[in-house]
Design goal:
Length: 132
């Protein structure tokens, strides 16, 4: 393997990234500049949106899309609380990869969130989290 080349796995191919590295979407600690830097370096940048307003989410998603030239990044939501408006805002603004923590998407997902990337992908990760 070339040390400077991509690390191809089923994960990297699915998400369209060069390296299997994901930045933690830790709420407001994860800013668009950090998510964009990870994406632009070949990984998957992430932002947490659980406690943001739909308007703020739209602005943050727009910022990441501009900084990455519409590259892949993930939007994360804690499903312990109702996230319908937040998820719809992220998807409407152009987020294509959604991850969840603390809950089951089947209990919270809108029809829009279930078709977010054209086809759903569900895997168990951590304490009941799903990756779609």
């Amino acid at each position: 393997m070339d040390a400077d080349g991509p690390i191809a796995t089923s994960f990297t191919r699915l998400l369209g990234i060069r390296h299997p590295i994901v930045s933690a979407p830790m709420g407001r600690a994860s800013q668009p500049e950090l998510a964009a830097a990870v994406t632009n370096a070949g990984g998957l940048g992430g932002l947490g949106f659980s406690w943001d307003s739909p308007e703020r989410i739209e602005a943050l998603v727009g910022a990441v899309r501009r900084l990455t030239n519409d590259g892949p990044f993930l939007a994360n939501f804690a499903l312990e609380w109702d996230q319908h408006q937040q998820m719809d805002a992220a998807l409407s603004a152009g987020a294509r990869i959604i991850s969840f923590f603390w809950g089951d998407i089947a209990l919270h997902g809108s029809s829009k969130s279930r078709r977010c990337a054209g086809r759903p992908h569900r895997r168990k990760s951590g304490r009941g989290a799903s990756i779609a």
